[in-house]
Amino acid sequence: MTLPHSLQQAAAKATEASALLQDPAALRQANKPQLRRYEVCSLLPNGGIAETRHIAPALPIFEDAFCAFTRGSLVETSTGPIAVEDLLPGDEIVTQGGSCRPLVWKGTTSLVPSRSDAKGRAHRLTSFMADSLGLQKPASCVVAGPSARLLRMPPHMQIAEDTPQLLTLAEEFQDGMNIFETAPPTVVDLFHLCLPEHAVINVGGLEFETYHPGPEALKLVSYAIKTLYFNLFSHVDSLRGFGPLAYERASPMSDGPLRG
User: Which of 146, 151, 185, 210: CA 20 to 30 A from 21?
Assistant: First the structure.
């Protein structure tokens, strides 16, 4: 004798409910959003430095503002290369073309790259071996975070030889040999940087962008999320405060530009 379909469904749901009740961690995960701690170091109008800690959801809009550079990444400044963790607001960062602009914001968070979040979103890193993109590009191994973008186009995204250079996510350059995915099973500190305007800077010999959320970043989020987001940045109170993008961004796994 077979069970009616409705009874089979009821049994399956009862089993799932029982499993949740027996696993408090699963129950918490089902009812509560994952939170993450974000640390911010900002340049104040009077030249001082403010350090703050924030708790906010582990959502892309927040994580992308912190997950570009790993500890030890060397950022080119007016006084020479400085590890990203040692940078302070007010330090003069060398931008593309050789001019210098002050660092106004540095964000830091910690996560385990090998561990996916509740929605299955991974935070895997990209390792660039020395000279993988040309002589001294980079000069030594550079490990970039999931939100890092380079002003460069990988071969599979170039339509023609004169394809303009776009800001492209680091993961698009993975070739499995000299540029590859890495996912440490331990906690990794990640950083991102803001200048007064969006720019391209030299990190380890490669041209990376500074942080910019994109003009459409907050289009579909709630007022509460917007409020939490702007609490992270003392130098802006709206998306207009970030200014325009210095370069267009490439769409992931496509050939077209993306202005977001």
Answer: 185
CA atoms within 13 A on the CB side of 22: 6
Contacts of 108 (CB under 8 A, 6+ apart): 38, 39, 40, 41, 66, 85, 189, 190, 191
Closest CA to 69 of 191, 182, 168, 206: 191
Backbone angles phi, psi at 149, to 5 degrees: -125, 140
Closest by Cα among 106, 97, 105 to 151: 97
The whole-angstrom separation of Cα 62 and Cα 226 is 10
pLDDT digits (tens, 9 = 90+) for 37-93: 999 999 999 999 999 999 999 999 999 999 999 999 999 999 999 999 999 999 999
The structure's pTM equals 0.83
Q: Which uninterrupted H or E stretch holds 107?
A: strand 105-111
